[in-house]
Amino acid sequence: MAAAQKLPSKYVKLAKARLGEDPKNIPAHVEALRRWLSSMPHLTCPDDDDFLLMFLRQSKYVHAKAQARLDNFCTLSTVQSIGDIIWGTPLDLRSETLDSYLNTGMHLPLDSMEDGKICLWIRSGAWNPDDLPMGQAFYYAYKTIFMMASDPRSLIAGIVVIIDFTGGTSKQVIKDPNVMKLWVRFMQM
Predict the structure, then answer these.
(1) Phi, psi for residue 19 in degrees, rounded to 5
(2) What are the residue ranges spanned by the domains of the chain?
(3) From what superkingdom does this record's organism come (predicted)?
């Protein structure tokens, strides 16, 4: 399988030690998850090897967990959850809102650490709810997290999240418990 062969040897060793990953068995695991996905017509998502491998690695190759995560991902990606945005909607790369979000520097993927972990710096104080509605901010956070989870290094070595509350105000506090429940459900994906 090409996905496993693209990894530097450092990550191949980490995947074996942390996830019990054996490159020879990856195609069989991916095919089993693909068969399960094809038996679930209500779930709509890509079925390429790299996409499915992402869920298998998150679940340390426990298929029931991978299936639950994939189901949760598909559900959250295709329903209107926070605000009026469906999170699975493709990004409009010419959007002024996207440009504004990127310029705030709210979610900043950083480089990797010596042990292979990928770093993400979240500057919550950089978010101004008057300029960027909460639903839009969560949509972009979803896209940033999905981008990081798509990198096999983050699934194998892990992600370090640095949350910086500098400049935070009471306007940024989310008061609706339903919004927080949805966000927690998404973070468990």
Answers:
(1) -110, -10
(2) 2-78, 96-187
(3) Eukaryota
Helix (H, G, I), strand (E, B) or coil at 5: helix
Q: What is the pLDDT of residues 73-132, one digit of tens each?
A: 888 777 766 667 777 777 788 888 888 888 999 999 898 899 999 999 999 889 888 888
| Cβ-count burial 89-116 (b if 16+ within 10 Å, e if not) | eeeeeeeeebeebeebebbbbeebeeeb
Residue pointed to by tokens 């990004």: 91
According to DSSP, residue 126 is labeled G
- Candidates 22, 54, 16, 18; CA nearest to 37 is 54
Cα three-residue angle 106-181-71, rounded to 5 degrees: 95
Angle at 64 between CA 59 and CA 68, to 5 degrees: 80
For domain 96-187, give its CATH number from 3.40.30.10, 3.40.525.10, 3.40.640.10, 3.40.50.12780: 3.40.525.10
